[in-house]
Design brief:
Length: 162
């Protein structure tokens, strides 16, 4: 019984300390009457993140997401259609991030989306070909999927789809 009361007391103290540690700061901004403020429209707002062009000895330059994870294409895909599903998709997850800018050397018009036939979700494409991650790439700069089974390759501005 004493053990239960002691444990409850300790948990109560931790809860109180955690609650005291949280700060709720309220920021206010004074707007002068002569300052015209306009809310930018969605098309005027800058994209949240930017794709990156990274370089690796093995793969050369390659396109990566904003966190530095390499983006790949699958040689067996067709323009506008993914041929990777099931176990393939578990190892090669679809790139689905929205609202990104592209690095120099790439044209934003070359990026679009498809709706996957297997799960109905949107997947981003480059020049019509779906983009993927490789599940074994664990950190920024990994390109472990480059050349896997001679059908998986990183994307770069020179990528030519066959």
């Amino acid at each position: 019984m004493k053990k239960a009361v002691f444990t409850l007391a300790i948990l109560s103290i931790i809860f109180v300390l955690a609650a005291c540690g949280k700060s709720t700061e309220v920021k206010t901004e004074t707007v002068q009457p002569d300052q015209a403020q306009t809310e930018p429209t969605k098309s005027e707002q800058a994209p949240v993140d930017s794709l990156q062009l990274l370089k690796n000895e093995k793969a050369g330059e390659y396109l990566a997401d904003p966190q530095g994870r390499a983006l790949y294409y699958f040689k067996k895909d067709e323009a506008g259609k993914s041929n990777c599903s099931g176990d393939c998709l578990a190892n090669w997850p679809a790139f689905t991030q929205e609202d990104f800018a592209v690095p120099e050397g790439f044209d934003k018009k070359d990026f679009d989306t498809i709706t996957r036939e297997d799960n109905g979700k949107k997947q981003f494409t480059y020049k019509g070909f779906p983009l993927y991650y490789f599940a074994k790439d664990q950190q920024k700069g990994d390109v472990n999927g480059q050349g896997v089974k001679e059908v998986w390759f990183v994307i770069n501005s020179e990528t030519a789809f066959e």
